[in-house]
Amino acid sequence: MSFPKDFLWGGAVAANQYEGGWDAEGKGLSTADVVTRGSRSQARYVTYQTADGVVHADEMFTLNTPDDAKFGVFEGFDYPSHEAVDGYHRFKEDIALFAQMGFKTFRTSINWARIFPTGLETEPNEAGLKFYDELFDECNKHGIKPLVTLSHYETPLGLTNAWGSWNDPRTIEAFLRYVKVVGERYKGKVEYWLTFNEINTLGHGGWMGAGVPSTDPQKLAMTAKHQLLASAKAVELLHAIDANNKVGNMIAFMTYYPLTCNPDDIMACWSEMNSNFFYCDVQARGYYPAYKLKEYEREGIDIHLTDEEKETLKNGTVDFISFSYYMSNCAAKQSDAAETSIGNMSMGFKNPYLKASDWGWQIDPTGLRYSLNVLYDRYQKPLMIVENGVGTQDELEEGDVVHDGAHIDYLRDHIKAMDQAINEDGVELWGYTPWGCIDLVSASTGEMHKRYGFIYVDYQDDGTGEGRRIKKDSFDWYKNVIATNGDDL
Ligand code: BG6
Questions:
Q1: In degrees rounded to 5, what are phi and psi of residue 397?
Q2: What pTM was estimated for this model as a whole?
Q3: Residue 60 Cα, ligand 1 centroid: separation in angstroms?
Q4: Which UniProt key words apply to this protein (predicted)?
Q5: Coil, strand or helix: which one is 428?
Q6: Domains, the chain, ordered by start
Q7: What percent of the chain shows pLDDT beyond 70?
């Protein structure tokens, strides 16, 4: 067992799930700020008003709104991103705790609407820039390298209300204006960048990843094209700003296995895997894969790809591939015999060999080893696992203790799988940032009590709690993992 000497151990959050401070110091609304709290059984809603003055709240994952919808915050709704876990005011305390664990890197995102409040401005908001100056300085002071996502489910809402956000090509220019500003401002402070968080979740609706209130396939294909072009241009821009910059993409890797050896199931699995690969193929290889172009053709989708755009994609391939990995799923052409399973924006059939979390996500460390190999073989680029973990219902017990053995077991097994991929299979893996290293708001359900962290945050779903930070059992465990560079699990 040995991890590379300079392996980047760390943890990950996203601005809208961690910071709060939703309207602090000139920040505008982001798409996350108009999404209500849900639960395992209650969907999250997006709020908007139509021209007749009526306020509506529709399910986030199936959102299809009328053209006159104006999105916003309305009375009587509970929006968990507004306070989140108050990282905006407490980040110094939190980074000190990450440093105690020995983090080498900390993945967070810049909330674009802190820098350009509606996305339409030509001049940035200085207070927002200063906030991230302080945050990145604090990381670097502790020897923690910031790993920064440019867009993590938090597009400025002004872009949606102005022209439908990423469905319109003008958003590419707005994004590049933002990337230029932050790239230049944080030159020397940030060296690792990711473009769009889980870009492939666009395949499951447009709100979360792009602020596009639609599930229309033509619109989503154009939205994807605009983000892929923006990602390629951002890679070029960040390289031009600083030759030391390393820019990666980020996909939700939802590994699929065929449910049976029926050749039809093998083909169903191939097709599900392509929905993982498509965005990554473009970002890593620089062109649209044949299977996707044919699929568009069959479905009557036209993405009007010009020669100039093809050139842009070719010139903006990423330096490394990053991905989230939580679970695996089974694919079948059809099955009356098997139960369906759920996951982070994925659906499939249950695997009888696997157990699942309380939220139904199937736990599969071997699937991580498999995924690392599949991605490395396909792209031959360095990899980073920038999200991994299991959401559990942790209890704060008397004496300020939290026994989160389920986190330790999950992470231990996945780190073992990483070790096998590196040492037995030869995969080049740069780093590992488990998700929600400090408890935060869940993206899919908006809950607080779906907890991933090494650090418990005393906020509850009913709005109670003071946000105190408490070390869980996993805190010392992970500290020792990092101190021994993965030798002692
Ligand atoms: C990923 C997202 O899908 O999974 C994160 O990038 C998210 O933003 C994480 O929080 C875990 O999902 P959830 O729904 O449990 O918060």
A1: -100, 170
A2: 0.97
A3: 14
A4: Hydrolase
A5: coil
A6: 8-28+82-483 (3.20.20.80)
A7: 97
